[in-house]
Amino acid sequence: MSKWVAEDDVYIVTLKQAPAVHYYGDLRSDLTGVRHASSSRLNIHKPRNTSRTGQGYGSRIARVHDSLLRRVLRGEKYLKLYSYHYLINGFAVLVTPQQADKLSRRREVANVVLDFSVRTATTHTPQFLGLPRAWIQEGGFESAGEGIVIGFVDTGIDPTHPSFADDASEHPYPVPPHFSGICEVTREFPSGSCNRKLVGARHFAASAITRGIFNATKDYASPFDGDGHGTHTASVAAGNHGIPVVVAGHHFGNASGMSPHSHIAVYKALYKSFGGFAADVVAAIDQAAQDGVDIISLSITPNRRPPGIATFFNPIDMALLSAVKAGIFAVQAAGNTGPSPKSVFSFSPWIYTVGAASHDRLYSNSIVLGNNVTINGVGLAPGTDKGTMYTLISATDALNNGTTVVNDMYVGECQDSSSFNQDLIQGNLLICSYSIRFVLGLSTIKQALQTAKNLSATGVVFYMDPYVIGFQLNPVPLEMPGIIIPTPEDSKVLLHYYNSSLERDELTKKIIKFRAVASVSGGQKANYSNAAPKVMYYSARGPDPEDNFLDDAEILKPNLVAPGNFIWAAWSSVGTDSVEFQGENFAMMSGTSMAAPHVAGLAALIKQTFPNFSPSAIASALSTTASLHDKYGGPIMAQRAYANPDLNQSPATPFDMGSGFVNATSALNPGLIFDSSYDDYMSFLCGINGSAPVVLNFTGQNCWVYNNTISGADLNLPSITIAKLNHSKTIQRSVINVAGNETYTVGWTAPYGVSVKVVPMRFFIACGERQVLSVYLNATTSNSVTSFGRIGIFGNQGHIVNIPLSVIVKISYNVTTG
Question: Where is the Inhibitor I9 domain (predicted)?
Fold first, then answer.
């Protein structure tokens, strides 16, 4: 059977003949459309004496569609997907553009359009992660994550957002009996704000209030989100399925959380005006554990490394250790302090640390100049009319008589329409400068757009001020044709063309003619050809720093990477974290803050599938099944520089991406898992030199109870990290089979300068049984350059278990003679 070629696409063909509904009169408002299980057609409840006639009409129309396709595409290959006959008379068909053109020229055909289904960011990341297949395993999106409560320690939530409504589905939605949280009631968070979806909401601000920096007007003494960040992260993990993303009047698709039927509990401990304090965060974590959440998601990190003998001994990490003891899976963002080594700000082995990667959705915009030069840019904007070039007018060349650049050095930023001559700008493209003031929030794109509208401009072109170096600009919504040129180099190209095209009076040097013209393509349509995933430049990197002296901990951080760049998700109605999305229902954000809730949602699906999994088992399922390649089969790349990151990249190592890029479907069927207990973590902490009094202070437990202390490398983690390999070392790992009986073989790639052997190399393991693996490592050279390898465990039933190997310092006693 031949495959469809890349240019084939789905088109919707509408015929001129009236559909069935026209024969039965207008639809009554009390009739309900019910979707067939086997098709996309709508069945309207017609009077009994006409229903058979309607069915006959539908069959007849389908035959007419088939006949038309056979006649027009005689002998050619095509695939009809649906016949529509109740609400429209037409069909959906997979054809080439040339075949679609043939159909459009038939007199029976009213319209032929490319399938307008759009997939973007959070509207797209479920597809990119393969979640529709994973949801099927859980009974579909309507039950995905059912019975699992995810607690969010963040900036609160906007309870009015449709992503958090409990009536989005007719599927039963009881509050889990193990959850006992409450909802605070305040003026901003009135009674009824919580429901069966949003099952708990509290706020914690005692530390901030004590310091005298809490502003109740801005920060809201309630669970209500005045920032936007918390609303965004909650919807990434567990927002309802199929919520329309409409921003700046344009529909960007339908959003869904990773685990759309999970419940949400909010513990607000961060605030717009000052951030947060550990005391409030720990109180929030503690309350979440008391309430009975299953997962805690923290898109927060400390502002500095904790002082003391080890980074693990800080209040937040120790509170999360207690949460893990209670069976709660803890997810934390790695931090946005990359790409330098040891920049990770989530430290402990009991916390699942998530870095940020791109996904394959990309919005691209461009401007075509009158000299046929095309400049790429950003901006979720409509384009100018196709085939029409518009005159370019720089804001500084269109000042009214009372304004000069001398009087207002920022006038080129287009923040005040009263400064400009409307007669010059009307109907043209206004050129504005984008300076550091936009980065600082002193000037805004929204205000520049308002200026352009007030002056009746056709659109706006922003060029980058040369002093804004290395700044990465997210796509921002523009309600009119426009573009932001994101680099000073391309901005110079625009300005050179503009200035060289001006016609000036020879004597006065005044401009007498604006001859530069351009058109804007628009940036509202996404494309999915981007090589992804890719570790983003800002994503914090390992190795994990054990202390403030930056000694290397033998713990792999980050644990993995997940989508974190250009993520669409819900936004608070008063959210101010991104001024460009103020007043919108959705926002596009980037950061490890966006990556962590992706994993929190996927962890909920694993918890639903394996209710008895410990937190470490969930972590193992995510790590051992992570992907090592991008969508085209190449290595996952990591950006290495803040400026021009795509020009400074190389293959990612475990210190960039941990075990790899999260794989949603494989994580639900891991085969083997590595399990660690609370006692294992205590044995690890007690093994740190001088830690006994600190452990006692934080946990109330004496280290003498833990006679057999262990190093980080000896924790039963799904990775092996060795800070110093002094000649040789033996590491043991223990796996449990959570699938059916299976035979596994072991293979490996040794790190440079290290020889590796794993015993046994082949084993049979029954369901529920445990197998110990011994890993023998020998240094074959002496150096301090980190080298990486990997152990693969391959089952004959298709399970693949990946274990990254990282060896930092190697000391060999081999002696060579000349």
Answer: 10-120
Do 632 and 595 lie in one domain? The reply is yes
678 part of a folded domain: no
Q: What is the mean pLDDT of the chain?
A: 84
Each residue's pLDDT tens digit, 452-481:
999 999 999 999 887 665 556 778 888 899
Cα dihedral 642, 343, 235, 669 in deg (nearest 10): 110
The answer to whether 761 and 775 have CB atoms below 8 angstroms apart is no
Distance of CA 399 to the CA centre of its chain: 43
Query: How many alpha carbons lie under 13 Å from residue 25 in its C-beta half-sphere?
Result: 7
**For residues 210, 212, 217 and 219, what is the CA-based torsion angle, rounded to 10 degrees?**
-60
Q: Which residue's structure tokens are 């919807």?
A: 235
- Based on the domain organization, do 428 and 542 belong to the same domain? no
> Do the domain assignments include residue 282?
yes
Tell me the CATH number at 585.
3.40.50.200
Contacts of 284 (CB under 8 A, 6+ apart): 153, 202, 204, 267, 268, 269
Tens digits of residue pLDDT in 196-216: 999 999 998 888 877 778 888
Are residue 169 and residue 79 in the same domain, yes or no?
no
Contact 533, 129 (CB under 8 A): no
- Alpha-carbon distance of 313 to 546, in angstroms, equals 10
Q: What pairs with residue 567 in β-bridges?
A: 589
For residue 345, which amino acid is it? F
Shared domain for 509 and 438, answered yes or no, is yes
Select from 502, 524, 546 the last residue of a domain. 524
Question: Residue holding tokens 């009994």?
Answer: 48
Q: What angle do CA 29, 30, 35 make, to 5 degrees?
A: 95
Cα angle for residues 168, 563, 380 (degrees, 5° grid): 75
Structure tokens at 496: 């050179």
Closest CA to 72 of 91, 111, 112, 99: 99
- Give pLDDT tens digits for 757-815: 999 999 999 999 999 999 999 999 999 999 999 999 999 999 999 999 999 999 987 65
**Token pair recorded at residue 787:** 């080298």
Q: Identify whether 47 is part of a domain.
A: no
Of the residues 85, 124, 161, 229, only one is catalytic, namely: 229
Residue 334: domain span:
125-357+530-670
Task: Answer yes or no: do 518 and 538 share one domain.
Answer: no
Point out the catalytic residue in the list 83, 85, 124, 154.
154
Following DSSP, what letter does each residue of 308-369 receive, concatenated?
SS-TT-SHHHHHHHHHHHTT-EEEEE--S-TTSTT------TTSEEEEEE--S-EE-EEEEE
- Which CATH number characterizes residue 726's domain? 2.60.40.2310
- Active site includes 261? no
Total structural domains within the chain: 4
Six token digits for residue 57: 């009409």
Residue 320 lies in a domain: yes
Same domain, 766 and 629: no
456 has catalytic annotation: no
What is the identity of the amino acid at 513? Answer: K
286: its two tokens: 């503690």
Q: Distance between terminal CA atoms of the chain?
A: 65
* DSSP letters spanning 715-729: S--SSEEEEEEESEE
Q: How far apart are the C-alpha atoms of 477 and 236, rounded to whole Å?
A: 20
The set of residues, in sequence order, having a beta carbon less than 8 Å from that of 633 and lying 6+ positions away, is none
CATH number of the domain residue 443 falls in: 3.50.30.30
pTM of the full predicted structure?
A: 0.80
Structure tokens, 816: 């060579």
593 an active-site residue?
A: yes
Q: Among 497, 524, 551, identify where a domain stops.
A: 524
Same domain, 301 and 446: no
